[in-house]
Design a protein that fits this description.
This protein is mainly alpha-helical. The protein is built from ten helices and no strands. The chain has one domain.
């Protein structure tokens, strides 16, 4: 991630510190969200999952730490180092997309094997989430020379990753006892809207500091919310279920 910035202490330094704070909140949400279902069981030795899921957890959480590092470098005026690490960010994001796709397909097939009737439908939530991150990240990379666009697209991409973390807490308190596999698709809407509160914080900051909201947040936010809502009807269509069967077949 490459962002051009002035020396520390310039008029925009407060904005950069805000982005550091938001990146720290993202990392905290990711850690706390997965604590009951992943971190705590792993530490206690009671977690029994395939290596693929450990790789997934490691690289996705690494993204939040990488974002925190990159925003901190910019806030500290170390933009050269920030730019030098840009290729590492591209490599990490690419790995996230590939591993995320593999986990989504594996989870769908596992759910089908367990007899979870909505496993194929829920795959739309996972796969569309990965697609949104990939597009937002790609847009950020394409605008490395436009820092106002670049940094907001990176934050938008990162916000989109936090729905699963929020969803784990919903599952902890709302899911019926003995539930296995992914939740029904409608259950993904509330966690998505809760995670969107982080985007609202970014929007409010824009409004207070710029007098208007940047188009990246406006258009990206509209697409993100629409995606979260439209998954419910689209996931049950014959077209998507046929697509899910085709995708599942690729892993067999």
């Amino acid at each position: 991630m490459a962002v051009v910035a002035e020396e520390a202490g310039y008029p925009g330094a407060g904005t950069h510190r805000f982005y550091v704070t938001m990146a720290a909140i993202f990392a905290a949400v990711a850690f706390v969200g997965f604590a009951p279902s992943y971190w705590v069981p792993m530490v206690s030795g009671s977690l029994n999952v395939a290596p693929l899921f450990h790789i997934h957890g490691a690289i996705f959480f690494a993204w939040t730490l990488f974002l925190l590092l990159q925003t901190s470098l910019v806030a500290g005026g170390r933009t050269i180092r920030h730019r030098e690490l840009g290729m590492a960010g591209i490599a990490l994001a690419t790995a996230m997309v590939l591993v995320g796709l593999a986990v989504a397909v594996r989870s769908m097939n596992d759910g089908v094997a367990l007899g979870v009737g909505h496993a194929r439908a829920f795959s739309l939530v996972s796969l569309s989430g990965i697609a949104f991150f990939a597009v937002a990240f790609g847009y950020a990379v394409a605008n490395v020379t436009r820092p106002e666009v670049h940094k907001r697209a990176m934050m938008l991409a990162s916000v989109s990753l936090l729905q699963p973390a929020v969803g784990r807490w919903f599952a902890l308190f709302v899911a019926p006892p003995g539930a296995i596999g992914p939740p029904p698709v409608p259950a993904s809407v509330a966690p998505g809207l809760v995670s969107d509160l982080l985007l609202i914080a970014l929007v409010v900051h824009d409004w207070r500091t710029r007098g208007r909201v940047h188009r990246v947040y406006v258009l990206g936010g509209i697409v993100l919310v629409a995606l979260q809502l439209l998954r419910v009807p689209l996931s049950a269509t014959p077209a998507w279920l046929a697509m899910a069967d085709w995708i599942a077949g690729l892993a067999r």
